[in-house]
Design a protein that fits this description.
The structure holds 2 protein chains of 2 kinds. By secondary structure, chain A is mainly β. Chain A has 2 helices and 22 strands. Chain A folds into 2 domains: 20-177, no CATH class; 194-315. In chain A, a hairpin with a 3-residue loop joins β14 (224-232) and β15 (236-237). Chain B is globular, with a radius of gyration of 27 Å. The two termini of chain B are 50 Å apart. Classes of the chains: A mainly beta, B mainly beta.
């Protein structure tokens, strides 16, 4: 009786967490946000392999500089960097994608020998997404016929000040390749969808959206999404201030591969000047291109009013 | 005392100097009228010699050189005062909204004795859905107060007083056929009220105008002028008794400023060529009786340059425009924005918020001939050590009045209202003076010295030195003890300056730095980072005559100052 109750709770929790979708194969996981700024900022990645599995995992980074000439790099394409490392069933491996810790080798006294590091060998600020897939020793993809093989978690952190945020890796539970079909994903924002959000006064807080387009062949193709701010459904561009004030503008931003888009770059200067001391709310959505995962970050730097530096982020949900 | 002093030429010279200093506008801040702390989230409102602002939850007005007058106290913590407006002329009046649990109401208060006393508050609307109000007075002395709620749930009212605010009559207004209304901007020309607006009609974004006969308050005509992209703002004015307006929108993905001017019965579209592609934050305007129009605005091109100050002149009633920059191009990497303008005859004074000194200040530019020519130099009004922002300007009583908000220190938490008056001749003199500054060579030498001092300090763990080299905005927030206790476990062994690049008062320093982390605990586990050389780019800011290292948060890229 007790066992049955526990099992029911587990199933309910699972459904609440992941939503209800078909349970087919799924052993490629997507980490939509990898942020590195060696040696200050790292992303600690953990991959769990419950099995079935094959001999190795293929780690594929699609990456690009966060800035070009001091300007945020929203539209630049990504380069691809591959690593193949052994795996076992069951297994967990954690590593620092920036390579600052343990030179990118497995962390936390892992007794297994992976034969090399896992990190993206770049320094300075970079943005990336990471695909992890079952493979052979040469990195050739291998289907293992399970929807529970791989899972993942990531923490993005400033290793010196301690600020951090994290997320769970994404699965398309209907396939094993490098395609993430939005129809099978939970909380990806589709073209035409808008998601409500609020923001604090921009003269104190920074609000930023990590956007990673998702779709077919993500290991090889730079997908694009155009994001906009909206003030109402259906797509009416603009935003709300506090005190029921409305601002109208249309400032789309194209994101190629992945990017962290500053709220400032989604508004016109008129609105920015008006809202700098108050903040407001609105909707963010995709006006063209691929579906995307959108994480909202907000942080305040060294402000004693808020206890110092604060950093917070979460995945925006399409469930209004 | 004075006869005695006249016997001593040196002493007399000192006295005259002090006397001039005291009279000279802005000299050491002696003639700055300050008061506060004010609610700096509301820009100061300036009309003639009077400013209007919020302080301690109350609404105040203040004449330059006089004590503040409380217009309204919110009375309860649950009641807030919003959307204030002020008009000062023969009649001085203030309008505002009060929002509480019972809803919102619109109030009016006037002074009929030049601001010595104000009468009781008059309730214009006991319950309104408006999100904002605006008021003005026409040349006949009629007072108009607009209440508006924009968006899909539109509510529009106008209250009209023809007896100087003693009584008002409130009329509902309607703009038919729109599913959403934005940017409503009213204008009175002769006996007609014009409502310029943007909105959504049949699913399309449009811009239009509605004409209402004031005597009967009956609509004369509603014109949808153009299908357009989103409109950010509309500024209305009249040119030789013809209604006109300028609005900001976008065309083919680029921002534009367009204007409509009524000619005979039609409205003609005249784009302001030269403003294409500029994301204009704000504009101000003046129209002379002969139809000459002067517009000042700030605009930017993303990724190319930050907000800069422009003037656009039309000699032919708004049909053709000559657009030019009027600020200093040396500081394109910092922000100059939100200009306001005042005019006296041919003389024009423009003020704006300027971050060339990294810490924003108020600067002024003069034109003696209606914007045909501009004096070469602009004038620093607020002083480099004061964090001053959101200026307004007016002309009254033979002088230009400027009001702005000013933070008490670089922590940027508490601000005062600052007011200043200066006459044209003084302003011209100030514009002719050379500003103190350093040459590029001097700046680079100072920069290298400061960079070396910082990294020598980092290697020696001389945290007092490295702390003091951080920018003052960071230090205003973070006390030394906190800084020292959060330095992290990095041990620096060597550094080399690979290159420096100075742009205005911002510099970028490329470095090679060798460091190690002997011990660090991450996620509960002890680890280390071996000795390694990295390349880095630090930003330095030239503030108060010296360089400071800009604090940049590694995770977010954020800092304590935006310029």
């Amino acid at each position: 009786m007790k066992r049955s109750f526990v099992l029911s709770v587990v199933i309910i929790c699972f459904v609440l967490t992941l939503g209800t979708f078909s349970t087919a194969k799924a052993d490629t996981v997507l980490f939509p946000v990898i942020a590195t700024n060696y040696p200050y900022v790292t992303t600690i990645v953990s991959v769990t392999n419950q099995g079935p599995t094959f001999t190795h995992l293929n780690y594929i980074y699609s990456y690009k500089p966060a800035l070009i000439g001091g300007v945020p790099n929203y539209t630049g394409g990504c380069a691809v960097y591959n690593r193949v490392r052994p795996t076992w069933e069951p297994d967990v491996v954690s590593f620092d994608a920036s390579g600052a810790f343990n030179a990118g080798w497995a962390l936390f006294n892992d007794p297994d020998s992976y034969g090399g590091p896992f990190h993206l060998p770049v320094s300075g600020p970079y943005r990336a997404y990471l695909l992890v897939r079952n493979s052979d020793a040469a990195g050739n993809s291998v289907d293992v016929g399970s929807d529970f093989s791989l899972r993942g978690e990531a923490i993005i952190m400033d290793i010196f000040s301690g600020a951090a945020w994290g997320y769970r890796a994404v699965n398309d539970t209907t396939r094993e390749d490098f395609t993430f079909d939005p129809a099978n994903l939970v909380n990806s924002v589709d073209s035409g969808d808008t998601v409500r959000f609020s923001f604090f006064p921009p003269n104190e807080w920074t609000t930023r959206f990590f956007v990673t387009p998702v779709g077919a062949n993500m290991h090889a193709i730079d997908l694009t999404s155009t994001i906009n701010l909206y003030r109402a459904r259906p797509a009416v561009t603009g935003i709300h201030g506090r005190g029921m004030v409305i601002y109208t503008f249309n400032v789309p931003q194209l994101v190629r591969c992945t990017a962290a888009v500053d709220l400032r770059d989604l508004m016109d200067a008129t609105t920015w000047a008006a809202l700098s001391s108050t903040g407001g709310w609105g909707r963010i959505g995709i006006s063209a291109g691929s579906s995307a995962y959108i994480y909202k970050l907000e942080y305040v730097v060294s402000n004693p009013t808020y206890g110092g530096t604060n950093n917070n982020a979460y995945l925006l949900s399409v469930f209004d | 005392m004075i006869p005695a002093l006249t016997q001593n030429k040196d002493s007399l010279a000192v006295l005259i100097f002090i006397f001039i200093l005291l009279l000279s506008p802005l000299a050491d801040g002696k003639d700055l009228a300050k008061g506060g702390p004010v609610d700096f989230t509301f820009e100061p409102i300036l009309s003639s010699e009077w400013a209007c602002y919020f302080q301690d939850g109350g609404l105040y007005v203040r004449k330059y050189g006089s004590a503040p007058i409380k217009i309204r106290d919110s009375g309860k913590p649950t009641v807030s005062l919003q959307s204030p407006d002020l008009h000062a002329g023969d009649l001085i009046f203030v309008t505002w909204m009060e929002k509480g649990a019972q809803g919102k109401r619109v109030l009016f208060k006037a002074s009929y004795d030049g601001g010595k006393t104000f009468g009781d508050a008059v309730e214009i609307s006991p319950n309104t859905n408006a999100t904002g109000i605006m008021s003005f007075i026409d040349k006949n002395g009629s007072i108009y107060i607009f209440e508006g709620a924009m968006g899909e749930k539109v509510a529009l009212y106008i209250s009209l007083s023809i007896d100087k605010g003693k009584t008002f009559k409130r009329y509902p207004l309607e703009i038919e056929g729109l599913s959403a209304l934005y940017n409503l901007s009213p204008l009175v020309v002769k006996d007609a009220l014009y409502l310029c607006f943007s909105g959504i009609k049949d699913g399309k974004k449009v811009i239009g105008i509605k004409e209402i006969e004031i005597n009967s308050m009956k609509a004369k005509e509603l014109k949808i002028l153009k299908e357009t992209e989103s409109v950010s703002f509309i500024e209305v004015f009249k040119i030789k008794d013809n209604p006109a307006f300028i609005y900001k929108t976008a065309r083919e993905g680029r921002f534009v400023l367009d204007s409509f001017i009524k000619e005979n019965a039609d409205y003609m579209l005249f784009p302001i060529k030269g403003a294409e592609g500029l994301d204009v934050a704000r504009m101000d305007y003046y129209v002379w009786e002969d139809g000459r129009v002067l517009v000042v605005f700030s605009g930017e091109e993303r990724g190319k340059f930050k907000q800069r100050i422009y003037a656009a002149v039309s000699e032919d009633g708004g049909k053709n425009w000559d657009v030019r920059r009027i600020d200093n191009k040396e500081f394109d990497n910092t922000r100059s924005w939100l200009p306001r303008m005042a005019v006296h005859g041919e003389r024009v004074a423009v003020v704006w918020e300027d971050s060339r000194g990294i810490r924003p200040g108020v600067r002024m530019k003069l034109s003696p001939d209606r914007g045909r020519t501009w004096m070469e130099k602009d004038i620093p009004l607020s002083g480099g050590k004061n964090f001053a922002f959101r200026p307004r300007i007016s002309f009254a009583g033979g002088g230009f009045h400027v009001a702005w908000h000013q933070f008490r220190d670089d922590e940027k938490k508490v601000a005062d209202l600052t007011m200043v008056k200066l006459n044209w001749d003084d302003a011209v003199k100030r514009a002719s003076r050379k500003e103190k500054g350093s040459s590029l060579k001097e700046k680079e030498a100072l920069l290298r010295k400061k960079v070396m001092a910082y990294w020598e300090g980092m290697m020696k763990k001389d945290l007092k030195t490295t702390y003091m080299i951080h920018d003052p905005f960071y230090r205003a927030r973070i006390p030394f003890d906190y800084y020292a206790s959060h330095r992290g476990p990095m041990v620096f062994h060597s550094y080399s300056i690979e290159g420096v690049r100075i742009e205005g008062n911002e510099a970028f320093v490329n470095l090679k730095v060798r460091y190690e982390v002997p011990k660090i605990t991450i996620l509960g586990k002890e680890t280390s980072i071996p000795s390694k050389e990295i390349t880095a780019e630090d930003t330095y800011l030239f503030i108060d005559g010296t360089w400071y290292r800009k604090f940049v948060d590694a995770l977010s890229g954020g800092s304590a100052i935006d310029y």
